Amino acid sequence: MHMRLYSVNSGRVRKGYRNVILLTLGTGVGGAVLADGRLIKGHIGRAGHLGHVTVNSEGARDIVNTPGSLEQMIGNYNLRERSNGRFDSTRTLVEAHLAGDKDASEIWLRSVLHLGAAIASFINAFDPEIVIIGGGIAQAGAALFNPLADYLDQFEWRPMGHRVPVITAELGEKAGAIGAAYHAILQG
After folding, report:
1. What is the DSSP string of 83-129?
2. What is the pLDDT of residues 121-142, one digit of tens each?
3. Domain 54-173 has CATH 3.60.15.10
4. Residue 170: what pLDDT?
5. What strands lie across the sheet with 20-25, from one edge to the other?
6. pTM score > 0.70 for this model?
7. 135: helix, coil or strand?
């Protein structure tokens, strides 16, 4: 039996996680890392720019000079370029993929493959209890989470069979903005 790692309608995530990775997938890719209950900010505050990790070292450079970044591979901002002008939004790309369009499926699944490789790398680097995916692209539901689970089955290092759950953000596509505002208030 093939076990899935996701919960598209997960309900409430229990409070108390101390090691969490949040990815927000939309126009770009953002994120945050909670380690031992503390938000990692870094030396000058740029930690959490998880979209600017390299997943293709031979790729073009992104806006912060990172070659082949995750943001370039799945973000909405350059989908027109990635699809040779065919798609303007991930929503239309996913709809075409689900309708059986072979070219759309190739583009979409390649994007999800890069996301899976990045998540597996984040899991190796941070050893989270859970990975949460928010942003507009997460609204693709099973079209995102099913192939992502398959790629994680291939890429994730699972000592003693331990799988890291990957779920959708409870607050939907606004999760990143709400979290940033909440953090700013706490720092206030």
Report:
1. TTTS-SSHHHHHHHHHTT-HHHHHHHHHHHHHHHHHHHHHHHHH--S
2. 999 999 999 999 999 999 999 9
3. no
4. 78
5. 38-39, 29-35, 20-25, 130-134, 166-168
6. yes
7. coil
